[in-house]
Hints:
Number of domains: 1
Oligomer: single chain
Organism: Lachancea dasiensis
Radius of gyration: 18 Å
Protein name: LADA_0F14158g1_1
Distance between the termini: 23 Å
Number of helices: 6
Amino acid sequence: MINGLISPPASPLDSMKSKPIVKLNQGHSRTVVPVNRINDIERATLTLAKAFKDSKANDYLMKKFVNIPIDEPVSKTRINAVLHYFNTLYSDKGGEIVEANDFDAVAVWSAPGQHFEQDLTNDPVFNKIFFDDLHDKRDELLQDIDCYYLFIIGKDLTQPRVRGSVRAIFEHYKQKADAEGVALVLEAINEHAKSVYEYFGFKNYYSFAYGVGEVDGNGNPDPNGEGFVGHLMIYYKGDLPGAKDI
């Protein structure tokens, strides 16, 4: 997740109603699950809000991207409004928002040739980590190879019996990347996410600390805090031209 934004709109979650029930894959995780590109951004945000409900790293990033002071109390409604802004931004910029298993999982991507620059935050240290260093490292690794960039992916954690949704999205995009000769690029915002992405075939090429001197490992404001550790991860069918010495 690397982006900055302006003041977000009100959260759509307050007014969302229940959706019609459709048949979901509750059996074996290898069952074929269709992946659909969608325009219902409000419902996509609802799924992602459930997925990141307890993610302190995500809360930190959402606050930083809109220049909310780290020590300012922020409700989940406000955090989700920031998330919704990002989703609409990617949609407006030609991004691909997809779902699987009736919105059990949602992902937001920018496609090859459709990437866009984001406004910097008011924190030069954060900007260097998330805009300068990561951008340079991606360019070093990919060189002339384009990519699908994953802004965010998440599963509705209130539906543990529904399986195969995240796998379906990753397999769909791995097939697209292979066919087009491009890579898939993402940042894992913590160690758990890193292990999940490794399971789906991504490799870690660069680890970085963020939030150091701002928050502790649980996201609490702490001028001596260790912050979080993120990872730049890439899937590519061949050998990355800039990864020969890694």
